[in-house]
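Long-time lurker, first post. I've been practising inverse folding by hand and with some scripts of my own, and I keep getting stuck on stretches where the structure tokens seem ambiguous. Below is the full token string for one chain I'm working on. Before anyone asks, I'm not after the true native sequence, just a reasonable design that respects the backbone. If someone could post their per-position residues I'd love to compare against what I wrote down in my notebook.
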């Protein structure tokens, strides 16, 4: 797949480099401590079972330079400030803040072979707002609910976002892409994994019923099941369990969500590993953006 860059974002190419520069001190400390054997790297978790997550479609709205809106390539990854933890506000010259129930995420990247941590990898996540709209596409002036985190030696990548809404035709979910490094992400190199996180039904139903900001959530959730969802329906029970967020909290205080993301680094990333064809929602196809 050919990757392009949004013309409006050319001025921000150096911005991502600045993000990386600001991280160098931290990364060098981690590398030094690892070399001294201080114990940052976790031992192989041989007793654990981890199921490599299946590839899913990036959907119509990835904002990663792979598709366009109104004939212009959209790429949030080149914008200054994209490496961040709190995703609720827009950044880099865009405006707006997503309104919704707070969701703190701890996402741990693993090599599926042995369930061992993946260090220094870039994780790009994006999701819809409380009523199912996506920044940069449905809301072109905003780029909120998008960001990149870098995995440490043995810890999770952390984000603060909002509980996603449920739009017609899709089970509630969060998109993500895993790259070998931050530099690989900004260059548009093929991801090691493109997939989606499943939100648990019980918690979704509770949030949508209790929070008026999710005005269409209960109705749309009642129209969809995991078995009928056009992305998740082909996954095995083990895959669904692995990619389902574990949540703690409630609709009044917000939630903490945890998930381990095992990546099959030995998989053939040819045609058989491409994301499935078609959009991830009713409406425009991925090519249409």
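-- Answer (accepted) --
I ran through it position by position. Result:
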């Amino acid at each position: 797949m050919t990757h392009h860059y949004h013309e409006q974002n050319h001025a921000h190419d150096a911005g991502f480099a600045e993000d990386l520069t600001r991280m160098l001190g931290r990364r060098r400390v981690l590398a030094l401590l690892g070399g001294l054997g201080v114990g940052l790297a976790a031992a192989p978790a041989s007793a654990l079972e981890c199921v490599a997550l299946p590839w899913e479609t990036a959907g119509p709205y990835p904002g990663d330079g792979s598709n366009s809106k109104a004939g212009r390539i959209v790429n949030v990854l080149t914008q200054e400030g994209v490496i961040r933890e709190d995703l609720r506000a827009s950044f880099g010259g865009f405006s707006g803040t997503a309104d919704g129930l707070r969701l703190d995420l701890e996402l741990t990247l693993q090599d599926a072979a042995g369930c061992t941590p993946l260090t220094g990898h870039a994780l790009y996540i994006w999701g819809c707002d409380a009523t199912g709209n996506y920044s940069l596409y449905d809301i072109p002036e905003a780029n909120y609910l998008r960001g990149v985190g870098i995995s440490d030696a043995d810890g999770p990548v952390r984000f603060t976002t909002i509980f996603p809404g449920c739009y017609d035709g899709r089970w509630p979910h969060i998109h993500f892409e895993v790259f070998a490094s931050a530099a690989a992400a900004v260059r548009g190199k093929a991801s090691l994994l493109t997939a989606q996180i499943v939100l648990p039904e019980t918690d979704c139903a509770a949030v949508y019923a209790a929070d008026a900001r999710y005005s269409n959530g209960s109705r749309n959730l009642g129209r969809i099941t995991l078995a009928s969802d056009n992305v998740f329906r082909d996954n095995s029970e083990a895959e669904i369990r692995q990619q389902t967020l574990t949540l703690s909290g409630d609709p009044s205080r917000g939630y903490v969500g945890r998930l381990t993301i095992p990546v099959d680094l030995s998989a053939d990333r040819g045609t058989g590993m491409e994301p499935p064809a078609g959009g991830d929602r009713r409406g425009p196809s991925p090519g249409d953006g």
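A couple of notes from the structure itself: The longest helix spans residues 13-35. The CA atoms of residues 49 and 115 lie 7 Å apart. Happy to go over any region you disagree with.
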